[in-house]
Amino acid sequence: MNGAKSVFNSVRSFSTLAAISAIIISGLFILFNFGESLGWQVGLAVLALAIGIPHGAVDHLVALPATSKPKLALLILIYVAIAVLAVLAILHWNKLGFQLVLVMSAFHFGFGDAAFIAEQDRLTGRRRMKPKTQNAFAITSGAIPVLIPLLKDSTTSALREINPLLIDWASNIAPQLKFLIAFFFVTTLALLINEKRFKEVLDLIVLAALALVAPPLVAFAVYFGCWHAMRHTARLTLILPKAKSAAERNNPVGSFMSAVKPGLPALFGTIAVALVIAVIDTSNIDASYLWYLLVVVWALTVPHMLVTSKIDRSALN
Questions:
Q1: pTM of the model as a whole
Q2: How many domains does the chain have?
Q3: Which residue range is the domain that position 121 belongs to?
Q4: How many CA atoms lie within 13 A of 89 on its CB side?
Q5: What 3-state DSSP class applies to 20?
Q6: For residue 269, what is the enclosing H or E element?
Q7: DSSP single-letter state for residue 129
Q8: What digits encode the pLDDT tens for the residues 99-114?
């Protein structure tokens, strides 16, 4: 399993370096007083989101790895129907839909990250985190990148450009949310240090720095595309036959690309759908395009989370 081990180690290094790079880039833009300019934020966010979109497009291969075409067609139909309903719900109930997506995403991202680490531990023969540490890490690593960027004061101007209806998404509970996240952050760090899980300590510190330094659009997009999606794709190399075969031949690059290629059509489709919707909405096309791209990505997260919950539970148990 040296190939699989190499995939996990390389992806973890890449996600960490990508997040640190985004922190440095954001810091430089802020230092030279370009931090509030939406242009560079949209460009970087769209690029990062594009990197992450393919990771959920092979869910049909995960849910039904070997099945008949009618069953596969039915699964895809249901999957697309759920995503379409989610798009309509978010567009109709902007604030409520946004809040539900945030909660759902925090749990999905956090437990997905914990599952990635659990599988890496298994590949390297390392002792797993204790259940309470694992759960605390999952909650914290999901809440930080999803909620913290949206609780900053600088978020208001970005949300005003994208969708003003989302500005007061946290209403009067923002202080309580900040306290809870800080509590989980400190508690989780203590648990990780006690178990000598220093790589996971670094993960949380990098995620916190990304959430605090980078603008909210950049922070979420870089986390989604270069952290969560990359780590999820690494996990797919343990499931998809072609990726497993390449890993067994000690070809980590071939293994990873075998998990990426089936999702590329979804990337082009998502970009096209978001662009069509944005063109129809002719006001402020740069901001509206990013908004609709985010809506499509969030909507796809709903069926994606349902499909991947099974492999998450398997990895964590």
A1: 0.81
A2: 1
A3: 2-316
A4: 16
A5: helix
A6: helix 264-280
A7: P
A8: 888 888 899 899 999 9
